[in-house]
């Protein structure tokens, strides 16, 4: 049933739009609290022997889950359940959700048991820091962390089912609740362990239990946060292994794309853990994760919202273009579907953007065939989004370089292991590592947008393979250049950061070629003058911020925090001033990112389900929305 074009959007779209404000606020708070978790860890546990062992083995359940089921469940949960609900088949939706949950537990429970049984050899494989007692401590942690595997499965399936039912708030709250529990765990650990930098044998057993149980409770809290709304929504979940008729083949095809998107990243994670411990020594992995978290912040705040918002616009434009020519629109045509976008992640594994479109080229079941010509509107939408992602990515990289010095000092002063000679040297190299991470910011933004563009043209599997290979490529440089003759924390840290930037940049370039092949060679053409203006502004701002930020080393904790804030704001101001001096039209270009490019009156229609965009650490699917007008006339956003 269609909505009346004169009365507004369809109720389904109004539901998404009404929820978007609260979801955005919750997601922002969750990101801030999630980042604050690293400060809590640094202060309470720190770059110490215990910290290295904890972070190394705590990654094991998440890595196994993502490879075995995470990418699969994230790719299939929402589109299958949402598709059944769109057809009005509540029974099929519940049956599909039940089968997904059953299979998740059937796979993850035995894997959890294997982690429990093999805890000691797994710990020995990942560690190698030289800390006495590290393998035994790692095995003790894994004995508790093994419980996380089925909990992750429950959380991601139930979150997907909630999103399919258009109940988005609980899924957005889940990572916030989990982060709060984990922060409380770290602070409790510090309360009973006054000397976190002590040798492992000197750490009280109570402290070890607090870390192990508290972290696992954080995952359980994530699952519980989405379980209660499932019960209130009246979803009937029953054990079953068979999917609803006609969905089995689709599960397999969608699962392949999801698997490829995460397998490479998770394997790279294991390699990084081993290299950091073996080549860098105690604390190196912790400092690398601090630097990575800081580097991902501008990407998450600036690039992810833009790439996520672009996805439904692209889906909408493509769907409309199938019913209209590129030279003129016709009023009253049925629209495609476009979902809202809800970005975020649940504990690093329940990722997602809800939004998508069903139609030719999007369903992963469809055989590869000639694609319809891309409409002018879709072409222009992607070019606008590409320009925006480049601008915010370059700006984010400049700000990261500017604050690298004071942020490194902040972590050095805050960290519980900062006084140790080995960890102290590695923490001292954090500014250089942050500088090496700067290309990662625009690279990840490009991957987030371009992978979504590939999904919309029926190239989900190829996009997943490219992203997975890019993550594997991040390990090549450190594997080749790091010397295995002894622990060198600063060198290991810097090579890991450089490898990350190089691998992801290569992945972005390959995806760009794929997108140009699928969408047209000119789709990534952008106006050169505002782009050069942004690059010059970023160069001046980043260099000036780096110079000022690295001149003040003898400061206290409050001074480092103040310096980071002042330098960051100053760098942002310098970037804007220089960019506007070179190209005063830059603000107008950026405003056009969300401005209409076509005119006309479009019909409306309710969309079905489909594969959503898959970015790093998350994927999203399915949705509904309204149609739009046909594309007509010349693209007013000329690349000159």
From TrEMBL:
Superkingdom, taxonomy of origin: Bacteria
GO cellular component: plasma membrane
Subcellular location: Cell membrane
Broad class of where this protein is predominantly found: membrane
An MF annotation (GO) of this entry: lipid-linked peptidoglycan transporter activity
GO biological process, one term: lipid translocation
InterPro entries to which the protein is assigned, alphabetical: Lipid_II_flippase_MurJ/MviN, MurJ
Pfam (any one): MurJ
Bias type Gly residues, positions: 600-633
rRNA processing as UniProt keyword: no
Transmembrane segments: 12-33, 63-86, 98-119, 139-161, 168-189, 209-233, 254-276, 288-311, 386-413, 433-453, 460-481, 493-516, 528-548, 560-582
Keyword Membrane: yes
Annotated region (Disordered), positions in chain: 593-640
Keywords for this protein: Cell membrane, Cell shape, Membrane, Peptidoglycan synthesis, Transmembrane, Transmembrane helix
Membrane topology listed for this record: Multi-pass membrane protein
UniProt name for this protein: Virulence factor MVIN family protein
């Amino acid at each position: 049933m269609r909505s009346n074009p004169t009365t507004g959007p369809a109720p389904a779209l109004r539901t998404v739009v009404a929820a978007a404000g609260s979801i955005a606020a919750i997601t922002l708070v969750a990101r801030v609290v999630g980042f604050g978790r690293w400060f809590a860890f640094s202060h309470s546990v720190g770059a110490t022997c215990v910290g290295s062992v904890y972070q190394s083995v705590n990654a094991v359940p998440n890595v196994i889950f993502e490879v075995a089921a995470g990418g699969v469940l994230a790719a299939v949960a929402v589109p299958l359940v949402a598709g059944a609900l769109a057809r009005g088949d509540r029974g099929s939706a519940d049956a599909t959700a039940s089968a997904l949950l059953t299979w998740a537990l059937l796979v993850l429970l035995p894997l959890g048991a294997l982690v429990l049984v093999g805890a000691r050899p797994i710990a020995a494989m990942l560690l190698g820091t030289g800390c006495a007692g590290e393998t035994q401590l790692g095995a003790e942690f894994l004995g508790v962390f093994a419980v996380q595997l089925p909990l992750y499965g429950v959380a991601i399936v139930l979150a997907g089912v909630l999103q399919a039912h258009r109940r988005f708030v609980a899924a957005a709250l889940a990572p916030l609740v989990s982060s709060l529990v984990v922060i409380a765990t770290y602070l409790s650990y510090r309360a009973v362990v006054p000397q976190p930098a002590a040798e492992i044998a000197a750490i009280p057993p109570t402290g070890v239990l607090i870390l192990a149980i508290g972290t696992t409770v954080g995952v359980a809290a994530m699952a519980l946060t989405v379980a209660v709304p499932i019960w209130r929504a009246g979803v009937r979940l029953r054990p079953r292994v068979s999917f609803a008729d006609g969905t089995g083949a689709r599960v397999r095809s969608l699962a392949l794309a999801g698997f490829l998107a995460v397998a490479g990243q998770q394997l790279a994670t294991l390699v990084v853990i081993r290299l950091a411990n073996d080549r860098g020594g105690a604390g190196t992995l912790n400092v690398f994760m601090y630097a990575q978290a800081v580097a991902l912040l501008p990407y998450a705040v600036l690039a992810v919202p833009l790439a996520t918002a672009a996805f439904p616009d692209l889906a909408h434009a493509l769907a409309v273009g199938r019913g209209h020519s590129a030279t003129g629109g016709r009023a009253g045509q049925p629209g495609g579907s476009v979902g809202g976008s809800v970005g975020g992640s649940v504990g690093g594994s329940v990722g997602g953007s809800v939004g998508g479109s069903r139609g030719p080229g999007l369903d992963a079941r469809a055989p590869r065939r000639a694609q319809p010509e891309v409409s002018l509107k879709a072409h222009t939408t992607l070019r606008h989004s590409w320009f925006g992602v480049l601008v915010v990515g370059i700006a984010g990289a400049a700000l990261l370089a500017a604050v690298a010095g004071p942020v490194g000092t902040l972590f050095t002063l805050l960290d519980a292991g900062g006084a140790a000679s080995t960890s102290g040297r590695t923490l001292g190299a954090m500014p250089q590592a942050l500088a090496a991470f700067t290309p990662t910011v625009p690279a990840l933004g490009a991957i987030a947008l371009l992978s979504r563009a590939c999904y919309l043209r029926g190239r989900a599997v190829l996009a997943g393979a490219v992203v997975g290979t890019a993550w594997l490529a991040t390990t090549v440089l450190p594997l080749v250049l790091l010397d295995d003759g002894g622990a060198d924390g600063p060198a290991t840290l810097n090579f890991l950061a450089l490898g990350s930037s190089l691998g992801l940049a290569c992945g972005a370039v390959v995806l760009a070629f794929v997108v140009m092949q699928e969408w047209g060679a000119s789709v990534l053409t952008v106006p050169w003058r505002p782009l050069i203006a942004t690059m010059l502004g970023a160069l001046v701002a980043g260099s000036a911020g780096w110079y000022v930020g690295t001149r003040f080393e003898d400061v206290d904790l409050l001074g480092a925090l103040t310096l980071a804030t002042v330098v960051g704001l100053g760098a942002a101001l310098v970037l804007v001033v220089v960019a506007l001096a070179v190209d005063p039209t830059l603000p107008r270009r950026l405003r056009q990112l969300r401005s209409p490019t076509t005119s006309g009156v479009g019909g409306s229609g309710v969309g079905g389900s489909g594969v959503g965009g898959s970015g790093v650490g998350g994927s999203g699917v399915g949705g509904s929305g309204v149609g739009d007008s046909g594309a007509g006339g010349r693209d007013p956003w000329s690349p000159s």
